[in-house]
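Write out the bound-state structure for nicotinamide-adenine-dinucleotide.
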Amino acid sequence: MSAPVTSLTSTEPATGELLWTGAVGDPDSEVGAARGAWASWASRSLAFRVETLRRFANAARQKAEPFADLIARETGKPLWEARTEVEAVINKVDISVAAYAERTPQRRLEGAMGTRVAVRHKPHGVLAVLGPYNFPAHLPNGHIVPALIAGNAIVFKPSEKTPAVGAYLVGLYHEAGVPEGAVRCVQGGPEVGKALASHSGIDGLLFTGSARAGLALSRQFAETPTKILALEMGGNNPLVVWDAPDTYAAATIAVQSAFLSAGQRCTAARRLIVREGQHQELIDTIVRIIDRLIIDHPHANPAPFMGPVIDNVAADQLQDAFLELMGRGGRAIRRLDRKDGDKPFLTPALIDVTEVAKRPDAELFGPALQIIRVPDFDAAIVEANATRYGLAASLVGGSPELYDRFWANVRAGVINWNGPTNGAPSKAPFGGIGLSGNHRPSAYYAADYCAYPVTSSEAESARANIGVGLADPNAPENLEG
Ligand code: NAD
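---
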């Protein structure tokens, strides 16, 4: 039996330099600490918790530059993009305060016979949060902030690929006055994730990551329907371009959808569905744009459009998957190549997979866009839905009537018209169907899974009588003697 891993390191994908090293955490002691703290956090007033999180937003704003720098170094994403992630972390607080008030408000209703009915919400208790590496601050924060506002305590396990950002984020909560016990950080890989998920001391799990891990968690949680499980998973997202009058705009939307963040977004377009016979100019324009994309170190000048993927393992897997598509009849228009032998910089790839029989319904989490040519719009919709996932879908071009058809028939939690598949608005719910989630959407609706409703019929004094079904005490058969 191999010895348990006791330390964790993270290296910068763009340089290979060591960034962070630390000990693998102990879920048992972290859950214990959170359990010890949650009742006191839950008993603070809502105003106190909101005020504390506003201080967290201020702390993040004050440290925005070093925070963004760390995100850029640890993920390899361009500095400008890391800055937008920090902005999202800061904005999450106000959005979550508004969402808590709107989605889980206190309500008073009139009950039967003049009783008052109150609807209030209670926190679950201790919630585990498992984060992915692609937005290592924004996505866990998107669970943690609403969960803290609702009065839960948190045990957060960052991705093993981004432990430094995870630790930094938790440091900011503490600096702002969130009690140390109310947010705990436990470092480690999937084994620590499994141990945390199966810990009897948690009341639920908020997960963002791959469908593979989400399905494993779903099976595990089948034994504990008493605990809340929110799964935000991946996608195999279609982008349909149909009768688009502006080819350059359509090509630009395709490039943004597929290659922002080096394709490491859950909402990235993976499949470009085009009309046979109308496609060549669009493809040629996409090629011209991607050949100009700057792929470089996050801090490079001029600023890059995209950086490397997260590590060499991910780059190797993506290249293998791309070669497999080629082996099965895919025609590479731009290959998924390494820019720099031993670093995970990949060039944006385009591959026509129309002739590939039984196309794999897999999320290629990197800069690779598959093209599928179809004869008519019905076939485009069939192709768009030819996936077990259902996260994001876009139509570019067409008329309002065509968009109505697209919207009505395509199965996804984000459906856009004349915009990219990615960049979802943070003031709206965000989640997918099929393998993309378990019907617990996040973002604005995160409030829904952070608290449960309690309905109470209430009166100042007890008044009661039984109106029907009681025998008359004065009836002769009920009189004694
Ligand atoms: P991942 O599933 O490999 O890891 C996510 C987290 O789960 C990590 O902390 C990891 O250590 C942990 N984990 C992995 N296997 C586990 C298991 N069996 N039990 C318990 N914990 C486990 O995901 P990733 O590679 O870090 O992130 C990329 C994936 O996340 C992509 O599929 C992407 O589409 C998805 N994603 C989804 C959303 C969304 O909101 N829907 C957002 C961002 C990323």
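---
The longest strand covers residues 116-123.
Residues 130-135, 139, 157, 159-160, 189-190, 193-194, 197, 208-210, 213, 216-217, 232-234, 266, 363, 365 surround nicotinamide-adenine-dinucleotide (CB under 6 Å).
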